[in-house]
Amino acid sequence: MQTAAVGFRVHSGWAAAVVLCGPVDAPVVIDRRKIQLVKIFSYAYRQPYHTAAKMPRPDAIKFVRGVQSDAKRLALSSLRSLQADLLESDFKIVCSALLLASGRALPELEKILASHPLIHTADGELFRDSLRAACGVCDLPVESIREKELFAAGSLKALGVQPAALKRRITALGKALGPPWSQDEKFAALAAWLSLAR
Predict the structure, then answer these.
(1) SS3 state at 170
(2) CA quadruple 19, 195, 35, 187: dihedral positive or negative?
(3) Potential cystine with 111: which of 4, 40, 107, 157 (Cβ 3.0-4.6 Å)?
(4) Residue 18, SS3?
(5) What does pTM read for this prediction?
(6) How do 14-21 and 2-11 pair as beta strands?
(7) Residues 114-124: pLDDT tens digits?
(8) Domains contained in the chain, CATH given
(9) Is 45 helix (H, G, I), strand (E, B) or coil?
């Protein structure tokens, strides 16, 4: 059985997931998929803190908790499905990487709902937390990587590749799959590659 790593890049309500296997100096993409993290793909559920800001506080708390619960359930179901699909092809995911935005800690709900920038941050963190929780249940170590540091972390330090060459190699990883090979997938692939290397 070959070992593999999965990288995630989160958006509001969904995430790009890309799985790589080694060798570390020439990884191969073995799976890519979009993971839905909301039951109903509407503004209200994709932007739960934006929606909660317009509600009375007791309703806001209940609504956000409901979206959190659904996102965790959907993330776990998707991750287990990904693991099962790969096991059929004799691959086992042994580690994961999750891209972060700012990585700053959030205050309590009242302060979040009073600040539009914090609302944006909280929406993203809710969906990242769902993937962290799913990885925890599946016994997958998860490494958090700040997105703005992704190429610096992935160049000379971890992979021994110059940043410009690394961008070309990430682009080339998707050629065998065919389009689309979006920025979401490229970034998730690099996160997985870093996890595989470590």
Answers:
(1) helix
(2) negative
(3) 107
(4) strand
(5) 0.93
(6) antiparallel
(7) 888 899 889 99
(8) 2-197 (3.30.420.10)
(9) helix
